[in-house]
Amino acid sequence: MYSGPKVGVLALQGDVREHGAALSELGAHVVEVRTPEDLAGVDALVLPGGESTTMSLLLQSSGLFDPIADRLADGMPAFGTCAGMILLASEVVDGRPDQRSFAAIDIAVRRNAFGRQVDSFEAEVDVAGVGPVPAVFIRAPFVERAGAGVEVLAEVDGHPVVCRSGPVLVASFHPELSGDLRLHELFLGGWEI
Fold first, then answer.
1. What is the pLDDT of residue 24?
2. Does the domain made of 6-189 have the CATH classification 3.40.50.880?
3. Phi, psi of 42 (to 5 degrees)
4. Catalytic member of 18, 163, 176, 184
């Protein structure tokens, strides 16, 4: 029935359904990940937008934080959008003191960097290797520092908003809300066997 890989979507909060629909349209077998058992059978994981502090707490209470950290350390491909970018970052510049992230990509991010909810906006972002994509920024972070092994694929106002390092791709906006599947394709194409 499915021709592509089994891709988990972290389903604790955020744009789970929208990411699932995009991935399904591209042929992936989508699994909503709510427990460590759900995670065990997936080839890759999408961490959606939402509220990063809340998601961090839910990762702890669900028992998912450590299993995801272990899988990421073993090279599991991951795609983080908005809050997912924050969770995958090595440093959260303005996070809560008890906020944990996975350090799966060597970037420092600033939460809500483009402003509050009322400052949300849409823009066309030119992504290297992809071209111009519609981008929905909602209380979006941006990258303040990208490590030596991180490829910056797109910037807005001089700040990186799409980065890749090995099998990890992050975007500060919500590609799942635009109807454009090219960033999901870029993610799947970056590691699919």
1. 94
2. yes
3. -95, 155
4. 176
CA–CA–CA angle 9, 37, 165 (5° rounding): 45
Active site residue 184: no
Q: Please pick, among 18, 19, 159, 174, the residue that the annotation labels catalytic.
A: 174
User: How many C-beta atoms surround the C-beta of residue 25 within 10 A?
Assistant: 11
Query: Which two tokens mark 184?
Result: 């999901």
DSSP 150: P
Supply 129's token pair: 């290797």
Kindly give the pairing relationship between strand 44-47 and strand 6-10.
Answer: parallel
User: Which of 18, 82, 159, 184 does the annotation list as catalytic?
Assistant: 82
Quick one: CA torsion of 116, 106, 58, 9, rounded to 10 degrees?
Answer: 90
Both structure tokens of 185:
């394709």
Return the structure tokens found at 147.
Answer: 């490590």
Q: Is the pLDDT of residue 14 over 80?
A: yes
Closest CA to 94 of 154, 158, 144: 144
Q: Does the active-site annotation cover 163?
A: no
Read off the pLDDT band of 15 (50, 70, 90): confident
